[in-house]
C-alpha cells in the first residue's frame, strides 16, 4: 500500500519506521494549503495519515496552524480522493475533553464544544473538515483522538504534559489499525499508555 505521511516530530518518525516495513511510505514535502502541493503529494497514494497541526504559543504562528487545519486538510482529503486514495486517517487530540471530569463516560460519539483557545479550536476544526469533506468524496475517513503520556513528554515529571500534544506510544499501532479499517467515517479515542510500543 502507498501511504502519504503528514505527521511531524517523533511520532512521524516512529510511524514512518513502522509503516515502511510493509508499505511504500512517502512523507509530505511542502505546504498542503497550496492545492497543487497537496495534489502532487497525494497522487497515486492509497492512504493518507495526517496529524492535527500544532497550535503554537504566539498568535502570529497559530493562525497559519488554524488555516492548515482547515484549508490544508480539506486539500489533502479531496486531492487524495481525486487521485484514487481510499483512506484518510486523522490523528487528533483529546484536549477538548480536558475540562470535563475524569469519571465521565466518553465515547467516540461524544463531541464537546471547543473554547476559543486555538489549542481547542484546531482539533475541532480539523475533525469537522475531515468529517464533512469525506461525506462529499468516495473516501473512508478515520479520526483517532490521542491523549498525552506524561512519561513521553520531556519535563512532565509526573504531571500531564502540554495538553493535546501527540506522543509516540500506542498511536502508531492505532494508526496502522485505522488504515486497515473498513468503516466509512469513524472517530475513536486512543488513551496514553506508558508501556505501549509501536508494532504492526
Structure characterization notes:
The protein has about 200 residues and is α/β, with parallel strands linked by helices. The chain has a single domain (about 1-190), classed as NAD(P)-binding Rossmann-like Domain (Rossmann fold, 3-Layer(aba) Sandwich). It is about 35% helix and about 15% strand. It contains five helices and six strands, in the order E-H-E-H-E-H-E-H-E-H-E. The chain has helices at about 10-20, 35-40, 60-80, 120-135, 170-180; strands at about 1-5, 25, 45-50, 85-95, 140-145, 185-190. It has a six-stranded parallel β-sheet with strand order 2-1-3-4-5-6, with helices on both faces. Strand 1, helix 1 and strand 2 (about 25) form a beta-alpha-beta unit. Helix 1 (about 10-20) packs across helix 5 (about 170-180), helix 2 (about 35-40) crosses helix 3 and helix 3 (about 60-80) packs parallel to helix 4. It is globular, with a radius of gyration of 16 Å.
Overview in brief:
With 200 residues, the protein is α/β, with parallel strands linked by helices.
How would the global form be characterised? Answer: globular
What proportion of the residues is helical, as a percent range? Answer: 25-40%
Which CATH C-level class is it?
Alpha Beta
Terminal CA distance reads 14 Å
What is the multimeric organization of the chains shown?
Answer: single chain
Provide the β-strand percentage band. Answer: 15-25%
How would you characterize the largest beta sheet? 6 strands, parallel
The low-pLDDT segments are: 150-173, 181-200
What is the CATH homologous superfamily assignment? NAD(P)-binding Rossmann-like Domain
Strand order of the largest sheet: 2-1-3-4-5-6
* CATH topological fold name: Rossmann fold
Instruction: Provide mean pLDDT, rounded.
Output: 77
Amino acid at each position: 500500500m502507498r501511504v502519504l505521511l503528514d505527521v511531524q516530530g517523533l511520532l512521524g518518525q516512529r510511524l514512518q519506521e513502522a509503516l515502511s516495513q510493509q508499505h511504500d511510505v512517502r512523507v509530505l514535502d511542502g505546504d498542503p494549503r497550496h492545492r497543487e502541493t497537496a495534489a502532487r503529494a497525494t497522487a497515486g497514494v492509497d492512504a493518507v495519515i495526517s496529524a492535527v497541526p500544532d497550535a503554537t504559543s504566539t498568535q502570529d504562528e497559530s493562525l497559519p496552524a488554524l488555516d492548515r487545519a482547515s484549508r490544508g486538510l480539506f486539500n489533502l482529503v479531496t486531492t487524495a480522493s481525486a487521485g484514487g486514495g481510499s483512506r484518510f486517517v486523522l490523528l487528533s487530540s483529546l484536549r477538548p475533553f480536558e475540562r470535563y471530569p475524569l469519571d465521565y463516560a466518553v465515547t467516540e460519539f461524544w463531541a464537546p464544544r471547543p473554547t476559543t483557545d486555538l489549542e481547542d479550536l484546531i482539533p475541532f476544526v480539523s475533525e469537522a473538515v475531515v468529517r464533512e469533506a469525506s461525506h462529499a468524496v468516495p473516501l473512508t475517513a478515520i479520526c483517532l483522538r490521542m491523549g498525552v503520556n506524561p512519561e513521553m513528554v520531556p519535563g512532565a515529571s509526573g504531571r500531564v504534559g502540554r495538553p493535546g500534544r501527540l506522543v509516540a506510544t500506542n498511536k502508531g499501532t492505532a494508526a496502522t489499525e485505522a488504515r486497515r479499517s473498513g468503516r466509512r467515517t469513524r472517530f475513536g479515542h486512543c488513551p496514553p499508555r506508558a508501556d505501549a510500543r509501536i508494532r504492526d
